[in-house]
Amino acid sequence: MKIPKERPEKYKGLKRDFAEEEYINLQPIQRGGILTEEAMRAILEFGDGYSTCDWCPPKTARLDMITSPPIQDFYKDLAEFLGMDVARVVTRCREAKFIAFKMLGRPGDYVVLDSTAHYSSYIAAELAEMKVKEVPNSGPPEFRVDLNEYATKIEEVKKECGRLPAAVLLTHVDYLYGNLNDARIVSKIAREYGVPFILNCAYTAGVMPVDGRELGADIITSSGHKSWAASAPTGILAFNRSLEDKLTARSKIEGDLTKRKFGAKELAMLGCTVMGAPLITLMASFPEVVSRVERWGEEIEKVRYLVSELERIEGVRQLGMRPKLHTLTHMETEGFYKISLKHKRKGFFLYDELRERKIVGIQPGLTKHFKFNTYGLTWEQIRYVRDAFFDIAKKYGLGIS
Ligand SMILES: *Cc1c(COP(=O)(O)O)cnc(C)c1O
Question: What atom of ligand 1 comes closest to residue 92's alpha carbon?
Answer without folding.
Answer: 7
